[in-house]
Amino acid sequence: MIFGYARVSSVDQNLDRQVKELEKYGCDKIFQEKRSGKNFDRPVYREMRSKMRFHDVLVVHDLYRFGRNKEEIRNEWKRLIDEEIDIVVLNMPILNTRQYKELPGAGQLVSDLVLTLLSWLAEDDRKRILQAQKEGIALAKQKGVYKGTEKKYHPEAKGKNKVIYDEIVRSLNNKEPVMSIHKRVGVARNTIYKIKRELNL
After folding, report:
1. What superkingdom heads the lineage (predicted)?
2. pTM of whole model > 0.85?
3. Could you confirm whether domain 144-201 is CATH 1.10.10.60?
4. Contacts of range 93-96, beta carbons closer than 8 Å, 24 or more positions apart
5. What spatial distance separates the first Cα and last Cα of the chain, rounded to whole Å?
6. Greater model confidence, 50 or 201
7. What CATH number was assigned to the domain covering residues 2-123?
8. Is the pLDDT score of 38 beyond 60?
9. Does the annotation count 9 as an active-site position?
10. What is the strand order of the sheet 2-8 is part of?
């Protein structure tokens, strides 16, 4: 069976492009997840992995879908190979373990070499992005124009946002679970947790 896995790192990002590429490849089942790549705490990915068996195929758009830490990327790759699950990385054709079936050892050698390089690049890219963000914020602060992320839901909010904030506060005070509030109100769980911390609840 051919499994496809699509992931983006925030709820605001779109999965359509990845999903279309996975459909074009011919995946039998596509799992979609909106989760940060900082760690491998991904419930949808874990669910997919629990369904995979020997000689199944996992297709991803790029190496970043496995994480953004080179050790996690390499370790997950090794786990998949050890379980005899083939891997296809669409934007890097050389990372397609299916094409090396008739060349014992050669495919693994090529994959190992390329994977080591790419996993290092993935982590290095992430570090450079974070560093650029820090430098940009520092420069904005020096110019007095940095205000941070504007809060949408807070005690002084106006209109609809104030109504939503008051409902979240009321629900938290009534001990309603965050997940329940999230589903009912439509506000991200992280936002609800922040409000909860601010209220010391």
Report:
1. Bacteria
2. no
3. yes
4. 95/63
5. 47
6. 50
7. 3.40.50.1390
8. no
9. yes
10. 29-34, 2-8, 57-60, 86-89
